# Entry
Amino acid sequence: MRISAAIITHNAVGQGLERCLASLSGLDEVVVFDQGSDDGTVQLCERFGARVYRGDWEGFGRTKQAAVMKTRNRWVLSIDADEEITPELKAAILALGDAPECAAYAVNRLSSFLGRWMRHCGWHPDWVVRLFDKERARFNEKTVHEEIVVQGATGRLDGLLRHHAYDTMEQYVAKLNRYTTLAAGEALDRRERTTLPGAVLRAKATFARMYFLQRGFLDGWHGLVLCLCSSFYVLTKYLKIWRAGRP
# Structure
């Protein structure tokens, strides 16, 4: 089976793009759909033999689907610039053969936070659909927290998708502001509203779920900080919704 990898990028050199591209060696092709990078992203991708296209940002779902549509092969692995596939996962992908049983396959994502691989807090195991037959699956049109919609069965593959999520708090805060604005915008489009007490309660519930029910305390101080940060993410998102809905 011939497999294409699809990546969307914008100034991704500092996100670990070289590590991502190196992990994809052995796949049939790598397609990069870039949104105006000026940090050497395009040149780095071309050095690894990737085919680079340029286009506009239309939200995560639509932009990732645009990248998928640039691929030549029917089977596509969608991967982000700050991710890498392990040798075990690559071997599982290449071992599928020419007639896979399923329309798509989920992989187990392991994410890092401030230098630690997080095994709790609801972050792991984290099964996400990333390998799929593009004739039977596609990205939805969500601006953020996009998903692949599959028509048919979904299987699971051995190995890990390593996600180098946040090396520094600066990275987390920058993404938090961007992602909460996008998520709040989607919620407002759905006419979702909230109150100030509602925003606070949602944030508290997020911390309680992640730290106690999902045993974030087992990840030490990293777990505590991640749960606090995630709680603040929820608070920020719903405060933006609350503020936008006020007369």
In short: DSSP finds seven helices and eleven strands in the chain. The domain at 3-166 is CATH 3.90.550.10 (Spore Coat Polysaccharide Biosynthesis Protein SpsA; Chain A). The two ends are 57 Å apart (CA to CA).
